[in-house]
Specification:
Layout: H1 2-11, H2 22-33, H3 42-55, H4 64-76, H5 84-110, E1 119-133, E2 139-148, E3 159-164, E4 177-185, H6 198-203, E5 207-213, E6 218-220, H7 229-247, H8 252-261, H9 269-277, H10 288-307, H11 310-315, H12 318-337, H13 341-358, H14 365-379, H15 387-416, H16 419-449, E7 451-453, H17 456-481, H18 488-509, E8 515-517, H19 523-538, H20 548-560, E9 566-568, E10 575-578, E11 584-586, H21 593-602, H22 620-623, E12 637-639, E13 643-648, E14 651-656, H23 662-668, E15 671-674, E16 687-689, H24 691-697, E17 700-705, E18 708-713, H25 714-718
Parallel strand pairs: 3-5, 14-15, 15-16
Antiparallel strand pairs: 1-2, 1-4, 2-3, 4-5, 4-6, 7-8, 9-10, 9-17, 10-11, 12-13, 13-14, 17-18
Helix pairs in contact: 3-5, 3-14, 4-5, 7-8, 8-18, 9-18, 10-12, 10-13, 10-17, 12-13, 13-14, 14-15, 15-16, 15-19, 16-17, 16-19, 17-18, 19-20
Amino acid sequence: MAIDAIGRGEEEGQPVWRPPWRLRDRIAAPFLAEREQWALWLPVALGLGILGYFALPAEPPWWIGVAWALAGVAMLRGLGPQALGWALAGWVVAASGLGFAAGQARTAWVATPLLADRMGPVDVRGRVIDRETRADGSQRVVLGALQVQGLSAGATPRQVRLTLNRKHAEEVGIGARVAVRAVLLPASPPLAPGAFDFQRHAFFQGIGAVGFSVAPARAEVEDDPPRSASAWLERLRESIGERIRLAIDGPAGPLAAALLIGDRAGIPEPVMQAMRDAGLAHLIAISGLNFALVAGILFFVVRGALALVEPVALRFPIKKWAAVAAFLGAAFYFAVAGPSPPTERAFLMVGIVLLGVLVDRDAISMRLLAWAAAAILLVLPDALLGASFQMSFAAVMALVAAYESLRGRVALWRSERGPVGKAALYVGAVVLTTVIGSAATGIYAAYHFNRFPLYGLAANLIAVPITAHWIMPWGMLAFALMPFGLEDWALVPMGWGVGWIIATAEAVASWPGAVALLPAMPAAALLAASAGLVWLCLWRGRWRLLGVAPIVAAFAAMALLRGPDLLVSGDGRMMAVRGAEGRLLVSDYAADRLTTETWLRRSGQSAAEPWPDAGGKRGRARAATPDVAQPPERDELRCDGQACLYRRDGVSVALVHEASALAEECASADVVVSSVPVRRGCRGPALVIDRFALWREGAHALWLEKGRARVETVAQERGNRPWVARRERGAAPPRQASAR
């Protein structure tokens, strides 16, 4: 090859002719030197195909993914040893096509009819397949095998999720057949362009509608109720969670249940918020730490116990027996905790490690992670879009890459240190782990949650050792004692440790500036940062440092990004405009708190600015809201009893909430946004957005610049996909209250 020829010429001291493609060879040299790392890019190629599928505006024909993958396979046939570039290209095409096909297959598998508009109250009958009791006493249940009054079998969703308030939340067990009078609603589409898509998330859970009860749920008597392993596991999980909460008083009980089995029911919101603000929310998600501790404790306990029996220890492979016991324990723990990207990834990795023990082979950590990621992406390709998958794999990938590069040095340092030095090394490892994990997940926390805990290092230095060396060992002992009814002996001391974690979270969260609020970033910035992180972690040579550039560019994009100047909700009830100081003014904070909080979070704000009432006076209800700031009067937004006028960058926008104001505003404004229908005669403005447009296209975001208005809508972003609820053509939107 050209690289070899150039090298020989230089060694012999002869002048070497450098072809015009020498830059290509210089790029190829480090790439060829890292052949062992190529396989690690399999999940990346799968992910590219999955992202391509979800980015399409319409559902593609079923054969596209298969043809794409076969085209890649065809590129691999008949290639000689010199066609390495073509072979690699074929491999990438085949893997990405497989990811695209996995997305198509997953969508077809979970497809369910979606409710497009509000129904009810109607009679709903179904079987309880999931249940969650909340801190306020209400319950959220998922019903399957549905019968819905007024819906044909073909139009009935596979599952619905209902909220039963305290008055209606009678005891209905998992697997029971129930009847309830309820109002059904479509799952919420994104509350702003680029915001989280609740409807898509529900679709891939098989949920086609949500709602709330208006009467108590009634359990129906069945002569021969069906039995299923999933229902038995859910009942077992509920029973374990209840026993944990009974044994541990106060908020530590629900948090202990979350730490052990992922059951977050009943955790008080202040405690949950403190855990988030202190950077400890990762402890609640059942992930690698939990599975490693469960499998590790079982492995060493079983192996130690067998080693005490000399005939067994000398004649049988007790290490492999211990690995089998650890795997069975981890499998049971996985079944009880329930499937999610962190639990699936952690269980797969633990299983492969224990399989390596059984076949007398050492597992390669990064390969282990790559195979786990590939398996999850093929089975659950939609998980790639979620924060859980992204954050868990980013953190583990960064940690594995860091510790693989430091493995030799750490082993040397450990062998040369005494007890004090080893303790210091442990503390250093906790610090390094926290720093690396926080840095790797920071971009995803910023994208999905618009917040970053600044004191997470201090909180984790206390909480992680307590979890690993106190809480989880007592928790494993509690599992072992539960069949005998003696779990309180272990759960009570475990509760002490959980209380220490809550105290740590509350203390750290109360520090000034504990959380940095960040504005929403574009998806392109997230992709750039992800590409940089993967490049940085999967390669070993110096050229991996090139991955820093896209990460820096992604954070720079956050600083340069300008949020929308005007937001309008899909039902027209709420509007928000950006003031001169760059902060959002919200029309009615209490009209829809979820929408308000979403808009503020994506704007990097913790409090809403008040909206001026008629005559420029601030609204009394909004001013009474404790977390709403009180700014001076603003000239850019003025309101009267029928409409508001917003001016920015040479554009005047009329925000109309009474039909009687339309004629005047249409004659003078550049843009009209109306929460009531505009049927005719509004021809003066360059852009008119009325109640019908909002109903059809969902929430709108407008940018006003240089005398023009740029618009993005939820409908434009989502396209026509199976998870988008379609309303009947010709139907009218429901009547709504004023947006003022």
